[in-house]
Structure prediction request, 373 residues.
Amino acid sequence: MEKQIARDRGSMIVKTSIIAIITNVFLVIFKMAIGLISNSIAIVLDAVNNLTDAISSIVTIVGTKLASRGPDKKHPLGHGRIEYLSALIVSALVIYAGITSLIESIKKIISPVVPEYSAAYLIVVVAAIAVKIILGSFVKKRGEQYNSGALVASGSDALTDAIISASVLLSAVVYLIFGIGLEAYVGVIISLFIIRTGIEMILEALDEILGKRVDSELIREVKKTICEDELVSGAYDLILNNYGPERFIGSVHVEVSDTLTANEIDMLERRIATKVIEKHGILLTGIGIYSINETDNDIRKLRHDVYDAVNQHDGVLQIHGFYADLEEKTMSFDVILDFDLKNRHEIYEEIKRDLDERFPDFKKSVTLDIDIG
Prediction:
């Protein structure tokens, strides 16, 4: 089932990219012809931008095909991250096209060429705007539907192209009415737009490669699925490692009663792993256990007092994994502090000092956990 979904996703990405390639090639031909005939540097550069879009779609297809290859001995977790590398290649191509266009535009500002506008010129530009709006909306929607960053970027780029083409049309209208040539200056603006798009694409791809925060809605849904089991009191520390779009391998801690046997815990872990992969397509390779004391009223009161003391400090998002032994006089738990705090470690030390004052008889193990949810 999972393989079929991956194949369907890859197939739709390839089909969408092919449509984008064909459309952009037609736009390149018409814009280049009209731009050369009319001596319009802006429309020639717009054509170059469309050519870059077509090349980007080709790279997207190649990247998708390579990423769809299954695991092997050298890459046991698959090749999904190739999609992010292909996005970096596309970004480099976009930036190169933008820099080249910028240089040519500056040359035209230094040595101006008088454009020759015609009815055909205006018709091509208007048609290009309409085509790019339709193509951009279509490709971006497909990218969001199939979680393809490359398609979303291509769709957004196409919508930006529509704005760029509109600026070309505006410069033509200004020249026809007022006789003021803005072609080269519009070319500079187009070039800067292209460069900015390339930089944004690089940053997005790098975020994925570095490991950006997983969508909070997905985290909530997976935790909700885990907590549906009657033996689970809570799910924490859910870490999802991205090995390509919609390819997650992760681990989690679950809170259960300290009365469960090893056999019951083993069966629980198997149920959780099966349910999560069936419902979310996520492989949980590790399920850790937080044992909680449910049968001792003194420990329940101690837990309440500790939680109350810790929550009085700034930036505390969550406390979990509490366990205490009254005979050994030990307690342990994890605390999560907001990343926005500039003095997280200072507050963490304050919490430990506060607990030492309030509960001097206990040996404490307080772990500063990561806010990953």
